[in-house]
Write a structure and sequence with these properties.
alpha+beta, about 110 residues, about 30% helix, single chain, two-stranded antiparallel sheet
């Protein structure tokens, strides 16, 4: 009987941990996907040779880390992406994660 009670308690505990984990995952997903959508207009172009290529059709973007912006026919390292410019970031997968200076996060997917 005591083994059955312990099994029931452990299952309840695992259920609570699983519910908390799912709640945190959903909260973080909502924070990441909605934090910058209204302010910035970043369009996905392509993923090639370890780079995600993007286009900024909105206002200038100020980033915490540098990206490469196409200037003429050269890629220039900068933390500010001007309006109407193509830029790229080094990435191991086709998803781009941009952290703005103001702290919001933008995730751009194909």
């Amino acid at each position: 009987m005591s083994a059955l009670v312990l099994l029931l308690l452990s299952m309840i505990g695992m259920g609570i941990v699983a519910m908390y984990s799912m709640h945190m995952k959903n909260a973080m997903q909502g924070l990441i996907s909605n934090s910058c959508e209204a302010s910035y207009s970043i369009n996905y172009i392509d993923y090639s040779n370890g780079y995600v290529y993007l286009y900024n059709s909105g206002p200038a973007i100020q980033l915490r880390s540098s990206v490469e912006v196409l200037n003429g026919n050269k890629w220039v390292n900068t933390t500010v992406v001007p309006r109407d410019s193509i830029f790229r970031i080094h990435s191991s997968d086709p998803v781009a994660i941009l952290i703005m200076r103001k702290g919001c996060i933008s995730v751009v997917r194909p």
